[in-house]
């Protein structure tokens, strides 16, 4: 294929995306304190952020990162396995292990790298992976990369998963993979039931706590702590880029598990290590989460309020769910983008999520509450949403 033919193919595909309402533009964004942001120069209340505990702009994190930046410079300069693991990486891994109540922890350059690398490392030919259909793309990609038999299940229809597990034969490993909190729906994985199934069928259970860390559990370790099943989960993966306000992924577990991951997981072995300054900021985050539980409490109070108000408007797809990720399903991608534009004009930035991120027919506003917000912010948002929905005939 010539370069001109390739360009024509790209333009044809771009036109298809535009026609289907799925074209994505690049925008310039600047985070501000107090749950605000600048988008193309317009100041907005940011309801698209996953900085759940309002730590990314905390002066203590900034100070910790600045001190480490002066001491260590910007980049880590090598992979952690070669020479990139500084004392800040070692300190963060120890603090994560202490926080998670495990013997050890290992860092990854991103949560995506942690999921992709771990799942593809523990499974291979002859094994079988069972993956929830709503799992994050990084988990799905890890399952596909592993080369194992790949089965998809629905967490709201576990009887199918049970039948599949009952039928499985052979000597290969059986692995169940799930998010703890599904990122586009905000719903919980049924971890108790999944632990039961894993134990009954001698399966390994891998749980990604990306949207659970800092948000759920008495100490903020995630949904597995909230449901008291931490000891029953084979591998717990987390991220530093959401509730902790920093960057990177991690796994916490036994010394044996962490040593095995250190030697086997390609996304860790072959990636330059996190910047030391980021590690210093994440260390500070863990201290704040422990010392200031009121952040999590305020977050949940706001989430409950907004969910109740949306439920009264019949705008919640699942009234039994809870937490700061709140979807409003609008089905049509063009309508979703139009309502998001109305909200932006009224001063609010909300995620407008379309396929392929979510299934066709489920385009949505993905509202994300953080502890930076106040009730008045949400009340004004609801008024703006009401006006836009009425304009497009979406009130229910």
TrEMBL record:
Keywords: Acyltransferase, Biotin biosynthesis, Pyridoxal phosphate, Transferase. It catalyses: 6-carboxyhexanoyl-[ACP] + L-alanine + H(+) = (8S)-8-amino-7-oxononanoate + holo-[ACP] + CO2. InterPro entries: Aminotrans_II_pyridoxalP_BS, Aminotransferase_I/II_large, AON_synthase_class-II, AONS_Archaea/Proteobacteria, PyrdxlP-dep_Trfase, PyrdxlP-dep_Trfase_major, PyrdxlP-dep_Trfase_small. SUPFAM superfamilies: PLP-dependent transferases (SSF53383). The modification N6-(pyridoxal phosphate)lysine is found at residue 242. Residues 43-385 form the Aminotransferase class I/classII large domain. This is 8-amino-7-ketopelargonate synthase. It comes from Gimesia algae. GO terms for biological process: biotin biosynthetic process. Catalyzes the decarboxylative condensation of pimeloyl-[acyl-carrier protein] and L-alanine to produce 8-amino-7-oxononanoate (AON), [acyl-carrier protein], and carbon dioxide. Pathway: Cofactor biosynthesis; biotin biosynthesis. Its cofactor is pyridoxal 5'-phosphate.
């Amino acid at each position: 294929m010539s370069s001109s033919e390739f360009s024509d193919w790209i333009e044809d595909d771009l036109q298809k995306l535009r026609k289907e309402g799925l074209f994505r533009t690049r925008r310039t964004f600047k985070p501000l304190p107090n749950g605000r942001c600048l988008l193309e120069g317009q100041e907005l209340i940011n309801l698209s952020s996953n900085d759940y505990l309002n730590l990314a702009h905390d002066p203590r994190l900034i100070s910790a990162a600045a001190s480490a930046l002066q001491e260590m410079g910007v980049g880590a300069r090598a992979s952690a396995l070669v020479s990139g693991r500084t004392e800040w990486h070692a300190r963060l891994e120890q603090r994560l292990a202490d926080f998670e109540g495990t013997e050890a922890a290992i860092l990854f350059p991103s949560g995506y790298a942690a999921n992709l690398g771990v799942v593809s490392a523990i499974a291979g030919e002859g094994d079988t992976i069972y993956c929830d259909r709503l799992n994050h793309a990084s988990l799905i990609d890890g399952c596909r990369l592993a080369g194992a038999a790949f089965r998809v299940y629905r967490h709201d229809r576990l009887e199918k998963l049970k039948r599949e597990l009952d039928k499985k034969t052979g000597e290969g490993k059986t692995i169940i993979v799930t998010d703890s909190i599904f990122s586009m729906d905000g719903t919980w994985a049924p971890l108790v039931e999944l632990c039961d199934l894993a134990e009954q069928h001698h399966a390994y259970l891998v749980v990604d706590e990306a949207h659970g860390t800092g948000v759920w559990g008495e100490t903020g370790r995630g949904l597995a702590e909230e449901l008291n099943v931490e000891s029953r989960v084979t591998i717990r993966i987390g991220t530093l880029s959401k509730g902790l306000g920093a960057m990177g992924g991690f796994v916490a577990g036994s010394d044996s598990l962490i040593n095995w991951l250190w030697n086997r997981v390609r996304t860790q072995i072959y990636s330059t290590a996190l910047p030391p300054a980021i590690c210093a900021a994440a260390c500070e985050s863990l201290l704040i989460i422990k010392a200031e539980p009121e952040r999590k409490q305020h977050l949940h109070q706001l989430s409950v309020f907004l969910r109740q108000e949306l439920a009264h408007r019949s705008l919640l797809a699942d009234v039994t769910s809870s937490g700061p990720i709140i979807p409003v399903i609008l089905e049509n991608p063009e309508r979703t983008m139009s309502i998001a534009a109305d909200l932006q004009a009224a001063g609010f930035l909300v995620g407008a999520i379309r396929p392929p991120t979510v299934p066709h027919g489920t385009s949505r506003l993905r509202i994300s509450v953080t502890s930076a917000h106040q009730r008045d912010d949400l009340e004004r948002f609801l008024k703006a949403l009401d006006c836009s929905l009425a304009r497009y005939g979406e009130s229910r």
